[in-house]
Amino acid sequence: MSSGVPSVDPDVVPLTEPADGVGPVVSTPAGLARVVDAFAAGSGPVAADAERASGYRYGQATYLVQVRRADAGTALIDPVGLPDLSGLAAAVGDVEWVLHAASQDLPGFGEHGLRPARVFDTELAARLLGMPRVGLAAVVADTLGLGLAKEHSAVDWSTRPLPEDWLRYAALDVEVLVEVRDVLAARLDEAGKTEWAAQEFEHVRTLPPPAPQVDPWRRTSGTHTVRDRRRLAVVRSLWEARDDAARRRDVSPGRVLADRAIIAAANALPRTVPQLVALPEFASKGARRRAPAWQRAIDEALALPESALPSLRGPRSDGPPPPRAWADRDPVAARRLDLARDVVTRLTEELSVPAENLLQPDALRRLCWAPPEPATAAAVGDFLLERQARPWQVGLLAGPLADAFADA
């Protein structure tokens, strides 16, 4: 969950204790059955949140689920011991679930059978309202005048047992989420943005899982400093060896071997373990202990034939070139992009909606690089809808963008 800690405000009242206290973590089928019964008998929306162990464990598994409903209270559930939570989703039926930054939690919820029929995303609502800070703590302070501490947002939630103060933090994350939702819903209605929000919430709720990345090793920090294909092969080989070790140990890859160590080895091209551990980035005990494995990965890359080396340019993209190259490659497209950005900037200021929420930047670039012919408002609208733009976005942008393209 996003942190967004607000600055100290004397008018903000600290929220330090859940109204119902902190109950034990639900970790048995019998305990889950009691939660299911309570939530089935509850009323109103379900406030929900999840905690992961990013930076500690491999992947994005959920290690705690927090839910709250009026007349049912708050439940903290251990999804490791209770991986199937579909009974809870069935118990509440088609009621609305309130989450903050839903796109972060819904994939993990889905893995445990929690698939809400409707969603209200308080972060997305705050964005559509043009609020300057959209982290949960900032939104709670703005809407309710309450101070929500976020000091445990980055802890290792795979820890067992979970400390009492961490559980208190987790319970507070859903304590007032429905109240925040009600304030934001009223503001959206006043601003004429209720339908916009409904479309955004449904889009987030129904997003498919992301496609696997092509060449994920290229995201190693510092890869841009590696200038030849042989060294890039070393980056790839070390990344793959690290990823395999991290997966087997269920540890965050960065805790197995730092990105900077991978880049240092790629640039130095050590031929022996002593040469490898002489690099400052391999001075830690862990790196030295596993140095033979890292050297084997390096040796494998050094032995590859030229035909097996990775490209310096990376996989071919189906998208347009970087905008900085447009002026030389297609001056008319560059002009379209400038005019389109002016349209987006103007609407952003008029509507108090961030540009990235008004229209996905990739869709705008693709439209400007290869617009439909003729670029009528209807054709522009169809183009954007095919690229997952929502109807409210198309209604605002299709006409002005078509006019801008005519000027180009």
Automatic annotation (TrEMBL):
Enzyme class, UniProt record, top EC level: hydrolase
Location of the HRDC domain: 228-308
Compositional bias annotation for Low complexity: 1-14
Keyword Hydrolase annotated: yes
Region (Disordered): 1-20, 308-329
EC number per UniProt: 3.1.13.5
Gene Ontology terms for molecular function: 3'-5' exonuclease activity; nucleic acid binding; nucleotide binding; ribonuclease D activity
Keywords of this entry: Hydrolase
Entry keyword Hydrolase: yes
A GO biological-process term: nucleobase-containing compound metabolic process
Domain of life according to the entry: Bacteria
Protein name per Swiss-Prot or TrEMBL: Ribonuclease D
Species annotation: Isoptericola dokdonensis DS-3
GN (gene name): rnd
